[in-house]
Amino acid sequence: EGMAPPKRILFPREKICMVWQQRQSAGAGLYNVGNTCFLNAVLQCLTYTPPLANYLLSREHSQACHQQGFCMMCIMEAHVNKVLHSPVSAILPLAVLRVFRCIGGHFQPGREEDAHDFLCCTVNAMQRACLSASSDLDLSSQSTTIVCQIFGGFLRSRAFGFFLPYCCFSCKAISDSYKAFLDIPLDIKAASSLTAALEDFVRPEHLDGENCYKCTTCKKNVVASKRFTVHCAPKVLTVCLKRFDCFTGGKISKVVEYPEYLDLRPYMSQAEGEPLHYSLYAVLVHSGVSCHGGHYFCYTKASNGLWYQMDDESVELCCLDTALRQQAYVLFYAR
């Protein structure tokens, strides 16, 4: 509703398999070659993303790929197959390390990087790889790659005024705009739980004074409110809890509770209807006092249904309660 349909479907949504096709215990750990814990933690979370792993394990991408040079999908396919089929306890993520600067030009070998930044750059590089064989695609069609079909959704921004749901009492226009997303960053300064942070995210923002809203229809400045909602829900919901201050580098180390199961329905544009249930499958953790240092590791749910703590080359079985009591930085939920 309100969005242009894609002119071309690059990967049919119905082909995405959310249930593991191969069941096994956790695969190999990843060696740290010097401040690469952020890379290892992100790669493990992606490796245990069921629909992505199913696709990469099938080797469907490499069999059809004709891209010359750097292709992040081919690299991730090789990496995931190596991790999950390796007979050894730990491997060197060499395929990814070799293209480290291709994933993000601002990354410096040997320097501790932000795990969420690396995650975004990796997923975006995978998206670019999926689009490499196509040109002149409309934005809606670009959102039908396997990457966007798994991680992608749309936010709706709606401005409204005193005469709900009208934005402008003068011309009674409704102002909706839509923005694609691959993850949702949430402010946690005033939130003690994931659900509270989501409630803050969809709470209307008042626009008045110098911050008045300019009606796109009649061009008048009006007092209004603006509200974000999830308009199209992703298959995999990735949430970043904003723990780091952009200016000081300081960290918000407070406890933010997060559930094993999450209903996204209350935060949707259509808040009425059947629940949209998500299940937690990975937790990326930062330990330390600032974004300039510390250590990254993660907890992931393997295809056998058991949870594991993955800390570089160490992969150890753990209980769900341990995974739910962490100082989470990025949370991964699957429909």
UniProtKB/TrEMBL annotation:
Instruction: Identify the Gene3D superfamilies for this entry.
Output: Cysteine proteinases
Alphabetical keyword list? Hydrolase
What the entry lists under InterPro entries is as follows: Papain-like_cys_pep_sf, Peptidase_C19, Peptidase_C19_UCH, USP, USP_CS
GO BP: any one term:
regulation of apoptotic process
One of the entry's Gene Ontology molecular-function terms is: cysteine-type deubiquitinase activity
CDD domains assigned: Peptidase_C19E (cd02661)
Q: Which residues form the USP domain?
A: 28-335
**Quick one: a GO cellular component term?**
nucleus
One Pfam family in the UniProt entry: UCH
- Tell me which SUPFAM superfamilies the record gives: Cysteine proteinases
User: Would you tell me the protein name for this molecule?
Assistant: UBP42 hydrolase
